[in-house]
Design a protein that fits this description.
By secondary structure, this protein is α/β, with parallel strands linked by helices. It is 30% helix and 20% strand. Helix 6 crosses helix 7.
Amino acid sequence: QLRNARKRRARRASSKSVTCSPLTAKNQQNANKNENLRRNSSVSQDRGRVTTVSSTSDPSVRYLSNPAKAPIVREAVSYMESRMSMAAKGKSDDVASAVSSPKLFAVHIGPKYGWRTVSKLAVRRSSSNSGDFGALEIGMFAPGSHDIIPMGYSRLQLSSSKKHRQEGRSGSNGAVGRSVHHPSIDVAIDVVREECRQAGVVPFEDTVRTEAKIDEKTALGKKGVRGIAGKGMLRFLAVNVERSTGRVQVTLVWNGRKERGVLTKLVSALLARGGGGNKKEDAVDLATNVVASPQVTSSFVLHSLWVHYHSGDRHDNSIFGRGDGSGDEWEIFYGEPYVRELLDLRNPRPLSRGRKRQRAEATVMTDNLPKVVLRFPPNVFRQANLDAFTGIVRCIRCRVQRFSKAHSLLPSCVELYGGVGTIGLNIADLTSSLVSSDENPYNVACFDASADECLSTTLRQYVKYVPKNAKEMVASGALADADIIVVDPPRKGLEEEVCETMLALIATKGGKLKPRLLAYVSCGFKAFRKDCEKLIGGGWKLEHAEGFLLFPGADAIETLAFFTLS
């Protein structure tokens, strides 16, 4: 951070030293003014009304009035419709292509509020000018800074009341007093904030102010003073919601094994507030209650309470660490080790944007749908919007069914970047074998427990999990005999080695291609666009693609694309 700050100062100094003509200088001033305006606010139009979002606002709701107007969504629609139009013109007579011809790129938008059931929040000192200045605060970092945007139900109501006083109405888009967080998360933030202040928890400090006079032992200072980098107790708060019950899995990310007395006091207070709702009779049998409605609660009920010891002295910005294998980085103080979730594949899919679309992909065979209970401890990846992600899994399952029928085979499947098996386990019953993989070592136990519980004895022996990253998997030849490949890479897209292996699958003996299906789930469109060009240029055919706004209001889109070889 310090190195980057020095670079920014050097760039500003060099730009000031450049001499230019009066006209050029004026143009430069205008450019700088426009750039500052662009950085500090975002302007969106909603039926002629312009809403300016300050840089101190939550960036994930910047385009909430019209999520489809986010820049990356527009870019994705333009590119994918162009690509799919080209694919339609050059469509082959291949059976798989004939079943579902390429069509325009549909973008699915789910509910705008209450969808986030996973949240990782920073714990820092408040930088507001209110009476809470310098007090412990929980929220998100403002864009381009480490200043906290407070979150929680109480902060939401405070913001709502201020907006009402200023405007005398409910604010733009009727969004005042509403949150993208599940209500259980907002309540949990308020409770943890209150108990932290009562227990004397010192928030983590990751900024340095040279003018500050700091108590070296506690990293505390007077009003207007910030602490020393790497000091403090509580770094982050992570909250996962069990959708069927509304209970919360709370994880305190503690700055190493320091100040155990304060930690013990905080844990005891949280258990006293929310530890009464984790009785066995309160749990929902997800295997039988398939269509359990998500529960909304305004009370603080713990599912489990964890502490993750992750020192801020390490030179990384990760919220969670993988540890050194000693097993003492994670400690559960209360409750069950897993949040259990079941994807209801029978639910209708989200509405798509714009003009009427063909809905061949929307047909899902509902006979013998799997009842896969997924397991999520806090140290594995879970989709923040699991309701919307269910639409992606449903679409993949439908395409696998059609692939199997078109080629009269029970396909073998390899899943890269598989997590706990969110996609793989929900299509396992449609395959002859499934190999799922991911580099996170904590995924294995979750996957195996879900597979043991939900898959038949016959199928279970052909389903396995390999704790390797994608590069190691392709290097071992895992894709050589796969009929179906499922990839869900991080924002950076496929590694070079993975992409090269995909292209190498085209080179076959005798010039005959093995029919293959690639299901690509992307959370970073720019990386996906690069990978898409490589795959198409190397011989893969783009068969179909859809967009899903898992974070409505943010400048983000999840892309699901199917590529074929035949």
